[in-house]
Amino acid sequence: MPNKDLGELLDLIAAFKNNLQRKQFSQAEKLVQKTTPILHKLGAFSLSASIDDKLFYLAREALELSAITSLHLSQDDPTNQALFTTSYKLLKPFYDREQALRMAKDPALERLNPSASQRNKITALYLVYLLSEGNITEFDTVLAGLRDVDEDSVKNDPMLKYPIDLAASMTDGRYNVAWEQLKQQARKKGNSEAVSGQAKLPEEFEIFSPVLLSTIQMWMAASAEKAYESLSISSAKDVLKLDSEGDVVEFAQARGWILRDGRIYFPQSETEPTQGSEQSASRASRSIIENSISYAQQLGTIV
Q1: Burial of residue 244 (number of CB atoms within 10 Å: 0-12, 13-18, 19+)
Q2: How far apart are CA 191 and CA 264, in angstroms?
Q3: CATH of span 117-187+201-227
Q4: Model confidence, pTM
Q5: Model confidence over 37-68: pLDDT tens digits?
Q6: Are 236 and 252 in contact (CB under 8 A)?
Q7: Mind giving me the DSSP string for 194-211?
């Protein structure tokens, strides 16, 4: 292994850490873009049994730092989330090898510095990303792979538990619960202590919250269309978690809803649903009715 190349990798890792510690990302995108070429030059993606152990864990660390840095960059430019997903996919073979050695109780695992691995954090962030994209199919695939090999870790790790609980609330139609989970995580961001006895997650989890909140609003809106013929604007504000009735009007216009006499009228589908889709719509309707009415009744606003 050329010493110069390994030196480049060590310098890259140091630069990533310095950027993250100082929260200075002006040069961070260049670091992310340099990561893959350096690792290719070192042969780090040829994960054969003969790969140098030190190269393995240094490459893993560089990719993890690249993934985390990409998320911070995405706050200013959402297109940089693509860099995060690329880093995750490059990391996956590293994590798979670690897991295979762990399952086999192979002592070779210790040579890969497993305590330094951020596997659970990066995987949990990827799961949150998939939720923000509404990609439940891929979410389930990744989660199933984790559970097949390490069920205890999935159950007990607070970082993995966060997207799992969030997904359960969203897919079950418990949108109020999902909304509060996200809001609670946002409140934790500025606190040094955990809220309500729950673990405080790394700050990167908060990066997805605005998009996730918007995603939940879209799911709420879709379910409301199935559940109601109309709603008063004040009730729609509560159901959709909007800040003002003016926001409701803007939201309704964007979705093509009809506004008349202080109410929103949802356009009804003119096509005849199949039995399967009809049952699915019915389940979604019941969920939104139960959650929305319960929430609104607490406020005394349902009309």
Answers
A1: exposed
A2: 39
A3: 1.25.40.990
A4: 0.81
A5: 999 999 998 876 677 899 999 999 999 999 99
A6: yes
A7: PSTTPPPPPGGGGGGHHH
